[in-house]
What does this fold into?
Amino acid sequence: MNYANLLRKFILFFLTISISFSSLTVNGNSLKSSLDFSRSRNQLSVFLDLQRWADEDYIRQEIPMVDYVRDKEMADVHIIMTRHQSGSAGSNYVISFIGGRQFEGMNNELNFWAPASMTRHEVREGYTNMIKIGLAPYIANVEDMLGMILLDFDTEVISLTDPLTEEEDDDDPWNRWIFEIYGGGNFSKEESRSSINFRYGFYADKVTEEWKIRIRPYFNYNERNFVVGDSTVTSISHRDGFNGYLIKSLTDHWSAGIFTNMLSSTFHNMDFQMEVSPAIEYSLYPYREATRRSITFTYRVGYAHNNYIEETIFEKTKESLFGHALNASANFRQPWGDIRAGITGSQYFHDFRANRAEFFARLNLRIFKGFSLSLRGGFDLINDLVSIPMGDLSPEEILLEQRRQATDYEISGNIGLTYTFGSELSGAYNPRL
It folds into this structure.
């Protein structure tokens, strides 16, 4: 480790902070008067707890009359928005309004259904409108802001809280099926290397309260060329396959389904694989609460037939395998932060030593005002790589990742700390440069 270089980075870091505080001291009076003016207007303060797919700038632009604060502890209203995707049919946005300070206990939840046919602008326009509706009761209780509300009704607007009404469902010629054909590619070329990639496929999805169905074939082709001296190294790989499922809602807590997968992949040494897996799942909480909290347990039993490109380390060119897997997962998104964790254990019946255990956890926690902790981790014990080809991999295959290598484990993780302080206001919307 280069300690001199590390020391220089720390000196630069603290010098930057010192300059920032000097600027704050010089402009202290104007900053204080600005904050005092903002608070004296008796405006509603809002904390937007959004994920990356949400257009926060658009929300700020369309709802400028409230103060957006940088921490939930400073907010009169804490807004949490989650998204539940229903295959290619569309997405349901669940917007939770949690009252704070003088609005403690005044909570509400609204839904916005966005069909897949909507543009990104129509989607952000839709959930922003729902946020306006949800904020109205809070604004109505702020005397200085009451005059900002104008209530109107459009009786011609179709419901945006449910994918289809019963009448529309009866008249739907597609019977709730959504189809999507996609394709694309990219290429790049330099003097000593070039690459070209193609992908294309098809989706067919049907999502109702009772059924969830998917049919998806897909195809991927990748080629890379490298000029090394007087020779050219070429890497060609493909991954083609099919996955589908048929899932039936049984009760508020139980569901069952069957999953089908087919695969042809050079990376996995798989000429052709066909797999069928029935499964059953239990949800500790009702499924309707899944956007905010869920704990589920899933059990699968599966059959797979594998034809390998090359003979495996177990001296197999093809084989049929039976196995099972048990999964437990938890997902919580609450005002204090969010956590997602899960553990999966699986094994083949022909040899219980051919097994795998996978664990992952993701935590974003607001410890106290302005201070957040982020943790990510994953740990896999891998003893079921039955398709590893016999023989040693060449340096080209290793460096270009043409084939999967044998391994007993995989570990990954990261940690992050964030401390935010200063003005309570989180900043105005400003699109310039």
Remarks:
- The two ends are 38 Å apart (CA to CA).
- Residues 54 and 124 are 7 Å apart (CA to CA).
- Helices lie at 3-26, 28-40, 56-62, 120-139, 166-171, 395-399.
- The chain has three domains: 1-38, 41-173, 250-419.
